[in-house]
Amino acid sequence: MNAFSRRGTCPALSAPMQTGDGLLVRLNPVAGGLSPRLLIEVAQSALRHGNGIMEVTARGSLQIRGLTAEGARLLAMEVDALGIEVRTGVPVETGPLAGIDPHEIADPRPLAEEIRRAIEEAGLAPGLGPKVSVVVDGGGQLKLDAVTADVRLTAVRSGAGVQWQVSVAGDGQSARLLVAAEGDAARDVAVAVLRMVAEKGREAHARDLSETQLVSLAGWPCLTGSREAPPSVLPDISPTRGEIELSSPISPISNVESEAAAAKLLISPQMGEMSGRTEGGAVERNPLPIGLFDLTNAYALGIGLPYGSMPAQNLIKLASRASELGTNEIRLAPGRALLFLGQPLSANQPLQLTAADLGFVTTPADPRTRIAACPGTPACASGRIATRDIAEAIAAENGDSLDFTLHISGCAKGCAHPGPAALTIVGGENGAGLVVNATAKALPAGYRPGYDAARGIGRVAAVIRSERFQGETAAACLTRLGTAGIAEAYRQAQTKKRK
Fold first, then answer.
1. I want to staple 380 with a disulfide (CB 3.0 to 4.6 A). Which of 20, 49, 142, 249 is the partner?
2. Residue boundaries of the structural domains of the chain
3. Domain 381-498 carries which CATH code?
4. How far apart (Å, rounded) are the C-alpha atoms in residues 53 and 60?
5. What is the average pLDDT value for the chain, to the nearest integer?
6. Do 17-89+289-365 and 97-275 show the same overall fold?
7. pLDDT tens for residues 20-43?
């Protein structure tokens, strides 16, 4: 067993990470899923050696919490004895329905395997940081647009068949497009990106590459046949809001080390339907991996974990029921969910009913899908507020007002949602602080007692309902109200209640 990994690294079985509730390990099966029996065995191991809390992450990994050093060692041994092969090295991720979705443009698995092999042959893994990742998205019903990556390869149809768009530094909307190429050429560009990142050191990401490097990648010899300036491969989109200045925080090439940055990016923000933005300014959500998804002569049933977490006992009960109903595989899905495969169509409804009784998420409309919440108190020693209790109260009382991400963080680390959220409740010395349009690390605009945080959000929700224009989203209304107005509503909720 290696030494414990520091926060911010990837807590694999061989390198557990210290958290507020003990050690945490992450498991990524090579097969992409587990049989019901194997998931039951892993959950039983989590009960024996951890605190019994299991999670599916936003990227579709299985996490086991509350381990001791000896418990982590024993769990790793038991997983190995079960014959579960886990991925190591640079993550090269494909969708949860890869290869079995009749709607996908191309099966991403062969290209993903070629990229893994090329990374290994080039010896790049030791030079890349643990958070560097690659996404290979074949399209279909469950795209990976919400998953951020250093390198993205996305299948697109072309006159010649299928090409792969290679983008860097972001998710499906924010990543910068470099090239569109056939499989071998796309693989070579992806590996070239990783090589440049590795040369900058283990703290680097693709966002740290310079403009000169990005332009050179777009003109890679395997695409143009020469080192001369490459033709533009970026989509011909007319700017509607002006070009993006490199000083903008959304720039994928900020923090360059030595070379002068170009004055502006080569592409401006996409507007309207192409950008996935609604009239009110909210970004359309990708389809959640919850519900029925049609496969060839079969269906996959997606069931979510509220806030990505569930007691191991409940997972055991659900997997046992799935086994009784004929499920032969349970896949981990980005978006904190499980996909049940192999059962007859008639088995899906009773499986959903069992899941609902156990507290799982069975419909994409469930407001808990829009709340990110860490374990909080009493599960985590770092937590200052009971995050899950607050989340449940908000979902039950004001879930209809949530068309944006609400983050509830036990402390300023922001483990459940590292990026900015429309609203964040964060536990601290002064109680439950409210952060607007930022991360949990930002200075709260207002405070109230931790036990009363849900009531504060209730008051904010009431203001949204009273102030919204017809057709306006709640997210757009929040923007219009501004930080001061939102904070005032949050702080005064208790006073308003007493009147």
1. 20
2. 17-89+289-365, 97-275, 381-498
3. 3.30.413.10
4. 16
5. 83
6. no
7. 788 889 888 887 789 999 999 999
